[in-house]
Amino acid sequence: IKRSSSTFDFASYHTLDEIYDWMDVLVEDHPNLVSKIQIGQSYEKRPLYVLKFSTGGWNRPAIWLDTGIHSREWITQATGVWTANKIAEEYGQDRSVTAILDSMDIFLEIVTNPDGFAFTHSSNRLWRKTRSINAGSRCVGVDPNRNWDAGFGEAGASGNSCSETYHGPYPNSEPEVKSIVDFVKSHGNIKAFVSIHSYSQLLLYPYGYTETPVPDQQELHEVSAKAVAALSSLYGTKYKYGSIITTIYRASGGTIDWTYNQGIKYSFTFELRDTGRYGFLLPAKQIVPTAEETWLALKVIMEHTRDNMY
Amino acid sequence: EQLFVGDQVLRVTARSEEQIALLGVLGKREELQVDFWRHPVSPSHPADLRVPFPSLQAVKNFLDSHNFSYSIMIEDVQELLDEEKESMRRSRR
Fold first, then answer.
1. What's the pLDDT tens digit per position in A135-160?
2. Is the model's pLDDT at A212 over the cut of 90?
3. Is A278–B80 a contact, with Cβ atoms under 8 angstroms apart?
4. Looking at residue B44, what is its pLDDT?
5. Which residue of A lies nearest to B46 if distances are taken between CA atoms?
6. N or C terminus of chain B with fewer C-beta within 10 Å?
């Protein structure tokens, strides 16, 4: 019996192997649209895979999406799987998605921190960081969302290797981060970058490391408002939006501060839902509703990027 | 495998900047191993703290003694993890 990407149970959480196997099936099912790229390997030598959705062309302007950089935020990897399937299914069916993919590529990294994710399945469900060993410390792992070269090591990250927000010894010390940095730099034509976390129901834009507003603040704020309105229209989930530092807290060395400083104007980060007050243990029955509402917001960001090319 | 039997997640609402600072102090007490799922940011923004079972009494005493208002968001983390694991097992079958 031929494997099929659509018979996968999207309403359940899955292990790393199951997700990686499913990615191969998605590629098999959509060979002219989806391909799998390995952009590097993790500290524990697991492959770092990115799904590329492309209808052709060379080095087209692109949109980057990633989920699961904090391994315990399982709703994000599950949303990534659902989203990958949605993009593949909607091409040729949905006018907006088709228009986006006819002019741009989409890259989606579903398991951005595979070592941490595997560890959440085998040893500690609530593990958040990478699994790199810190010299001279009994504590393992670096917060990969404090390890980017944007205000690295400043206030809003911890120098204590035992902390959940440990920034690491130097920028890009984590191969999971360095691989994305290298990919983004070598691609050179990424126009939107969306990093998906959970759970606080927020849509955020730079900066996190400084109170200085980004030059594009007004536009990013307007896009956020539109995206959040679209998201909330489905199930009434309440989201707040704004810059990281004004909406939640000062955070240095963060992903989208770096991408914005690289010239990727449409840099956003999500904090997905917890309407059920379950935190990182969001019941599996909420996976599909969460992914569905997030998709509406993602589409707004992608459409805006397509229509406002720079 | 690390178990979380009896661990609770407390949702704490700070009423002032002073109380936010006090939660920061709580987080720095390494022996309590409080895991901030949602950090204290502003008086309007609740903080969620996973508290290991052995530290529960001490943390609740701390919160009570400083007049924090809080509720128990998750009664027993391990119960939810067991449910999650069972749900995955059923799905895989």
1. 999 999 999 999 999 999 999 999 99
2. yes
3. yes
4. 75
5. A200
6. C
Predicted ipTM of the assembly: 0.94
Residue of B11, B23, B28, B87 to mutate, interface with A, max A Cβ within 10 Å: B87
d(CA B32, nearest CA chain A) in Å: 13
Among A283, A205, A276, which residue's Cα sits nearest to residue A241? A205
B84 chain-A contacts, CB cut-off 8 A: 13, 125, 281, 283-284
Which residues are A3's β-sheet partners?
A: none
What does the alpha-carbon distance between residue A120 and residue A124 come to, in Å, rounded to a whole number? Answer: 5
Enclosing H/E stretch for B36? strand B35-38
Q: Which residues pair with B84 in a beta bridge?
A: none
How many of the other CB atoms lie within 10 Å of CB of A138? 8
| Distance, CA of A175 to CA of A172 (rounded, Å) | 7
With a CB cutoff of 8 Å and minimum separation 6, the contacts of A269 are A194, A195, A196, A197, A203, A204, A205, A244, A254, A255, A256
Alpha carbons A224 and A298: distance in angstroms, whole number: 10
* Residue with the two structure tokens 């703290």: B49
- What is the interface size between A and B, counted as CB pairs within 8 Å? 60
Residue A195 contacts by C-beta under 8 Å, 6 or more apart in sequence?
A66, A69, A145, A255, A256, A268, A269, A270
Q: What percent of chain A has pLDDT over 90?
A: 96
Give me the residue from A162, A249, A279 closest to B74, CB to CB: A279
> Cα separations (Å) of A120 from A22, A43, A115, A274, A284?
19, 16, 9, 19, 16
Residue A291: name the closest of A139, A92, A78 by CA. A78
Q: Is A271 one of the catalytic residues?
A: yes
In this structure, are residues B48 and B38 in contact, taking their beta carbons and an 8 Å threshold? yes
Active-site residue identified among A176, A271, A293, A303: A271
A209-240 burial by CB neighbour count: b if 16+ within 10 A, else e? bbeebbebeeebbebbebbbebbbeeeebebe
